[in-house]
Amino acid sequence: MLSHRWGRGEPLLREVEGKKIYDLGGTDGLAKLQYFCALALEHNFKWAWSDTCCIDKDSSAELQEAVGSMFSWYRRSSLTIVYLSDVSDAGSLARCEWFTRGWTLQELLASPAVLFYKHDWSLYRESATANHKTDATVLEDLQKATGVAKQHLTDFYPGMDDARSKLHWASRRNTTRPEDIAYSLFGLFKVHLPVLYGE
């Protein structure tokens, strides 16, 4: 699965449906999708998932299911590839925009295996590990950037316990739509509520 900060020209479902993405061109978002798919293939995966084009946002039922299921989807992911579009060198996570976004908190905490990639699609802090959550140096960087303790980064359990800490982690993040401030927390607290954008 891809975890990323949305940028310009993100391809939507209708734009890629039934097409070979490597035959398409023209936007930064499409190039990001192509790099992500190539990386997934390098890691021996035949299927890759990105929220920009794998959810039919024109369907309110599908959007409702996606918002309510996002945490569990990332939890079941074999690998989450995190693209840090504004990181060019190791140790600069604290200034990275990915760590300021509401939805990426649950993607980070839910995913059992994560690899971080810098803006040029090179691996963040080259190491032999297949999971940055098992790399002590990367975990130290993550703790500094998020304020989340290492034990939660590596072994997070959703639910209502320790609500104060979870809300504190989320308080440092923003969302584009005001409703998403709450919706992005559903998975962390293990709650299911109706999604009603604009209500």
TrEMBL record:
<dbReference type="Pfam" id="PF06985">
    <property type="entry name" value="HET"/>
</dbReference>
<feature type="domain" description="Heterokaryon incompatibility">
    <location>
        <begin position="2"/>
        <end position="90"/>
    </location>
</feature>
<dbReference type="InterPro" id="IPR010730">
    <property type="entry name" value="HET"/>
</dbReference>
<protein>
    <recommendedName>
        <fullName>Heterokaryon incompatibility domain-containing protein</fullName>
    </recommendedName>
</protein>
